Amino acid sequence: MGNCMDSSSRVDSALNSQIGASQSKTSKTSLSSMPSSLGSASTFTQPSYKEKSDTLPTPRTEGEILSSPNLKAFAFSDLRTATKNFRPDSLIGEGGFGHVYKGWLDEQTLTPSKPGSGMVVAVKRLKPEGFQGHKEWLTEVDYLGQLQHPNLVKLIGYCSEGDNRLLVYEFMPKGSLENHLFRRGAQPLSWQIRLKVAIGAAKGLSFLHDAESQVIYRDFKASNILLDSDYNAKLSDFGLAKAGPTGDKTHVSTQVMGTHGYAAPEYIATGRLSAKADVYSFGVVLLELLTGRRALDRSKVGIEQNLVDWTKPCLGDKRKLYRIMDSRLEGQYPKKGAQAVSNLALICISGEAKSRPKMSDVLEKLEQLYDSKYNVLNQEISNRKVPNLVAKSPLRAHASPRRHSTANASPLPTYRPAAKVH
Ligand SMILES: Nc1ncnc2c1ncn2[C@@H]1O[C@H](COP(=O)(O)OP(=O)(O)O)[C@@H](O)[C@H]1O
Ligand SMILES: [Mg+2]
């Protein structure tokens, strides 16, 4: 069975559909040092405050973080009102650490407004998980309170009252990339939009890596890439962000945290974290965009469970690439452009961190591709012959909504956090 040599994207099985019915809840996890390709997509723990203080060039106290002039401190009662008492019909997402609700605030005063009027916001309410949840929450307030960029989600404020920890973000109308790629019944994303999303996310990561005080994002994955109404991508969920190495250091040593399937092998094995670990995760997301499959999919068998292992033999090989391409694209992608993206993914997922490109180089390459002749759908688009190809309108050429065949098999529900490595 399957590697990409002998099986192209498998479609709907009863099992897949069944598993796909439950939305996966990726969560932050302590990754064990065992390099299991079949490990669960999941979790990690928060770096200790001491660790963070040691590595951040300008460590800040909790009081300093919370007094950021960019952020509003909300009363819990206001956020309860804004979300209609956290009613289930306001729920828009769920991650490892919390539920996310849609809410409404008055644009000027940031006080609760009538549902449907004023400004729409997303309110993340952390599950009451004690200290660790609090540390992640604080890390997110710390970074997003300081960093502003068109490709990072905007944090409007927070709430810390008793045991309640909440975050208030700008609302991203098109939700997460994960939902678009893997949710059953979702309209398939066109090739152009996939490229646009990759470029937006690459801009966000490049910004973090090239900042004066480098930031390593550490949890780059489809569920943390949010989309605005025009498919501009923004990174959210900064709970695991970490200050990069300073001086002539090549890495920071830290407890291994992240998500199986996305985390770089050297980081899992050694706890040595560098920006190149984010580049690896970016490569995995490129593979998800190419194939429409999850980084880890336990509904599949053998090598097909792990996207990197399954796709690797086909990446960089133009005769084999079509075997792993997302069938939901229905062949509507420029062949050369897809080859170029697969080559790029291949170097991003290189086993050797130093062989991976910098994010700024990845971004440059993607932008070239977006603008170049390689991004034009022309007569010969894919290896497969596609009838009725509408060359002029690549974005509309495959409008028929289809049931997504890729199972939504997050291993998280059965995941048990591993022992800390460091
Ligand atoms: N600002 C937002 N706008 C719209 N949807 C959001 C927003 N923030 C989060 N979500 C949805 O909630 C999910 C979980 O959010 P996330 O911040 O990643 O939580 P966690 O820290 O628990 O992983 C996202 O994958 C997305 O679907
Ligand atoms: Mg998340």
UniProtKB/TrEMBL annotation:
Its EC number is 2.7.11.1. Residues 86-370 form the Protein kinase domain. It comes from the Eukaryota. The keyword Transferase applies. Residues 1-20 have a biased composition (Polar residues). Keywords: ATP-binding, Kinase, Nucleotide-binding, Plant defense, Serine/threonine-protein kinase, Transferase. InterPro entries: Kinase-like_dom_sf, Plant_Ser_Thr_Prot_Kinase, Prot_kinase_dom, Protein_kinase_ATP_BS, Ser-Thr/Tyr_kinase_cat_dom, Ser/Thr_kinase_AS. Pfam families: PK_Tyr_Ser-Thr. GO terms for molecular function: ATP binding; protein serine/threonine kinase activity. Residues 1-64, 394-422 are annotated as: Disordered. SUPFAM superfamilies: Protein kinase-like (PK-like). Residues 21-42 have a biased composition (Low complexity). The keyword Kinase applies. GO terms for biological process: defense response. CDD domains: STKc_IRAK (cd14066). ATP binds at residue 124. Belongs to the protein kinase superfamily. This is non-specific serine/threonine protein kinase. It comes from Carex littledalei. The lineage of its organism: Eukaryota, Viridiplantae, Streptophyta, Embryophyta, Tracheophyta.
